[in-house]
Design a protein that fits this description.
The protein has about 220 residues and is α+β, with helices and mostly antiparallel strands. The chain contains seven helices and six strands. The N terminus is likely disordered.
Length: about 220
């Protein structure tokens, strides 16, 4: 299955498009993959993939049929709400024409959504889509990535720059409140490590604990 998805991306790299083979109803899709490429921003690309039970992975690199070769792979588990958002755009992705016809829009990054089942794949690649559902699920994928990137920074700062944790946790809390960082349960181990680290300021540990409470709710 991963080989099919990866092959589809290779075709797009050469031809600019990848035709869907077969068809899948919203209740039949097995895996959805979201890939972002954006110039001048770090990370320059990342990929999120999960199955229809919400179990998946995040990594900062291109789609790969062999996750053992992908850089910085992190396991994730997304909510039923996110699974529903993803499934809602399958019909749009099956059509394959996701890019807007509007001209001279700012380049906000090349986004690719791939649904797959055994022997079947459907793909859309776009900078901006006119479909409101596709924009909503794209925003959700980007918000998951934002959460994962916060988690990586927090883990690094806990080890190498503890004084930066206070401001970083404030930024994460603001992003969660605004909806630009979601599925915070996926960085719970990092937050739990901060809460349990008695070398850190009580204020920092308290902020991490509040984020954990919010993730639980």
């Amino acid at each position: 299955m991963r080989a099919l998805v990866f092959a589809c991306f290779l075709v797009m790299a050469v031809s600019g498009s990848c035709a869907m083979s077969g068809a899948a109803s919203p209740t039949e899709w097995r895996t959805v993959t979201f890939h972002m490429e954006r110039a001048g921003v770090q990370p320059a690309q990342y990929t999120i993939e999960f199955q229809n039970d919400g179990v998946g992975f995040y990594w900062e690199g291109p789609p790969s049929f062999n996750l053992e070769e992908a850089p910085g792979v992190q396991k994730i588990k997304v909510s039923d709400n996110m699974i529903g958002k993803a499934g809602a755009v399958l019909s749009v992705v099956k059509i394959g024409n996701c890019e807007t016809h509007l001209k001279n829009l700012a380049q906000t990054g090349r986004k690719t959504v791939v649904f797959s089942v055994e022997g079947v794949s459907a793909t859309c690649e776009f900078n901006y889509s006119d479909d409101e559902r596709l924009r909503a699920v794209t925003d959700a994928f980007m918000s998951i990535a934002e959460t994962m990137q916060f988690g990586a920074r927090l883990a690094h700062e806990r080890r190498f720059d503890r004084l930066a944790l206070d401001a970083e946790l404030d930024s994460l809390a603001d992003e969660v409140k605004s909806g630009r960082a979601i599925e915070v349960q996926n960085v719970a181990p990092v937050l739990q490590g901060i809460v349990g680290d008695e070398r850190l300021m009580e204020r920092v540990r308290s902020k991490a604990a509040h984020l954990l409470e919010d993730a639980g709710r």
